[in-house]
């Protein structure tokens, strides 16, 4: 596979295009287990029938692990939102509809969201009392088995020329509570300082799924804490600021 057409560069990985294929190539520091887990997640979600790139191969290129998938031609929803700010409401409607379609799927072999979050909370540098409180709150939340993307944002949706949305990047996929996935998406908008869009998104998600805003809010400290173990110091500081935001004893 030729690696001369770079589509995107991320921390520890570069994505290339070669004809009808895309290669996500990881650097040597990236854990092999995480790469194989990402490919497995993608394959399992593929079996639900959702519109996603198909895994074609997991291989090594020049000594680096790579996941080869079908290439999806189009623009990201983020690009379209930036190019057409007058259509934000229309694009958010599509965005939430796609998320609901994902949450309506089941994939029983995906890792469980509760397990992953409990593990991540244990990995934080929060004090023992705060960690105990977060574990208790998480374990008190309803356990569902919906497919959760884990990083659902407009940059991970490709809109093809005929208007079909495809969802990329299933490395964080789990099965669990859809409100937790919505809380994650809300925080992603807030991280980018897109506060107005974050609020519009939350209202739309709650309205379309008949979910109480207070219920999603209960997930915000839990999700923020579990996400704080990765990312740069600025992101960690922002996320940890949400850990004590809501008190709902």
Describe this structure as you would to a colleague.
This protein is an alpha+beta fold. It has helices at 32-46, 77-83, 88-103, 113-123, 128-140, 178-191, 195-209, 213-227, 233-240; strands spanning 6-10, 13-18, 21-26, 55-61, 64-70, 75-76, 146-148, 157-159, 165-167, 174-176. The strands form three sheets. It has a five-stranded antiparallel beta sheet, covered by helices on one side. Strands 6-8-9 form a three-stranded antiparallel beta sheet. α6 (178-191) runs antiparallel to α7 (195-209). The mean pLDDT is 94.
What labels describe this entry?
single chain; 249 residues; five-stranded antiparallel sheet; three-stranded antiparallel sheet; 46% helix
User: Span between N and C termini?
Assistant: 56 Å
How is the largest sheet built, in terms of strand order? 1-2-3-5-4
Number of strands: 10
Helix content: 40-55%
- What oligomeric arrangement do these chains adopt? single chain
Structural Rg: 18 Å
Shape: globular
Structural class: alpha+beta
Q: What's the main sheet like? A: 5 strands, antiparallel
Average pLDDT confidence is 94
Q: Give, in order, the helices and strands.
A: EEEHEEEHHHHEEEEHHHH
**DSSP summary: helix tally:** 9
Weakly predicted, low-confidence segments = none
How large a portion of the residues is in β-strands, by DSSP E? 15-25%
């Amino acid at each position: 596979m030729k690696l001369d057409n770079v589509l995107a560069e991320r921390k520890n990985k570069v994505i290339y295009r070669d004809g009808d294929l895309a290669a996500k190539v990881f650097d040597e520091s990236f854990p092999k287990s995480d790469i194989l887990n990402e490919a497995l997640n993608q394959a399992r979600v593929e079996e639900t029938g959702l519109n996603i790139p198909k895994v074609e191969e997991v291989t090594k290129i020049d000594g680096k692990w790579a996941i080869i998938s079908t290439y999806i031609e189009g623009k990201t929803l983020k690009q379209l939102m930036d190019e057409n700010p007058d259509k934000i409401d229309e694009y958010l409607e599509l965005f939430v509809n796609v998320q609901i379609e994902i949450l309506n799927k089941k994939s029983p072999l995906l890792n469980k969201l509760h397990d992953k979050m409990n593990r991540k909370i244990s990995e934080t540098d929060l004090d023992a009392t705060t960690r105990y409180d977060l574990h208790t709150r998480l374990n008190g939340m309803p356990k569902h088995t919906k497919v959760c993307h884990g990083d659902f944002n407009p940059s991970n949706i490709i809109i093809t020329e005929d208007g079909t949305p495809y969802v990329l990047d299933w490395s964080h996929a789990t099965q669990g509570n859809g409100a937790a996935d919505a809380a994650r998406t809300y925080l992603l908008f807030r991280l980018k300082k897109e506060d107005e869009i974050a609020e519009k998104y939350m209202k739309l998600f709650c309205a379309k799924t008949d979910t109480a805003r207070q219920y999603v809010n209960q997930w915000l400290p839990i999700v923020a804490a579990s996400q704080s173990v990765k990312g740069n110091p600025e992101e960690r500081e922002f996320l940890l600021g949400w850990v004590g935001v809501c008190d709902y004893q």
